[in-house]
């Protein structure tokens, strides 16, 4: 191969390879994330902890917060990638705003399905956001109804 061909090949292949190397997160699996935020997964205004199991592809989380009264949440997240920005699918039991809602002093709960993204920097700084729908149980006047859910939080992730 001639020197000019080698140089052209290096120039063409170098930037994509450098960008790919920058995009990869450290090899260590995530262990625990602690975050504060607003939304259903933190009891409206509060905090959450997330423990990673099965490598860092599956996690169990719990949250607690306050909006006129104590509210708790918990569930499972399945992650779809291993990079810095990882999409996830969440199945959870969350506090949902009811007909008389948290402003009236009553928090109703129900199951939810949400899609979200977690961004973890190499330093451990973490931003997580999710949105979806929950099925409010025991709402008035009859039965249950579907309500939107959302949340965003900022925290720190520890690695193994």
What is the overall shape? globular
Biggest sheet statistics: 8 strands, antiparallel, barrel
Give start-end ranges of low-pLDDT stretches. 3-25
Strand order of the largest sheet: 1-2-3-4-5-6-7-8
Describe the fold and architecture.
The protein is mainly beta. The protein has one domain (26-159): Beta Barrel (Porin), CATH 2.40.160. It has one helix and eight strands. Strands 1-2-3-4-5-6-7-8 form an eight-stranded antiparallel barrel. Strand 7 and strand 8 form a beta hairpin. The model is unreliable at 3-25 (pLDDT under 50).
In short:
The chain has 160 residues and is mainly beta. The chain is built from 1 helix and 8 strands, in the order H-E-E-E-E-E-E-E-E.
Which terms summarize this structure?
160 residues; mainly beta; Porin; 1 helix; 8 strands; 13% helix; 57% strand; globular; disordered N terminus
Indicate the topology:
Elements: H1 3-23, E1 30-39, E2 44-53, E3 58-66, E4 70-79, E5 85-96, E6 108-120, E7 125-136, E8 145-159
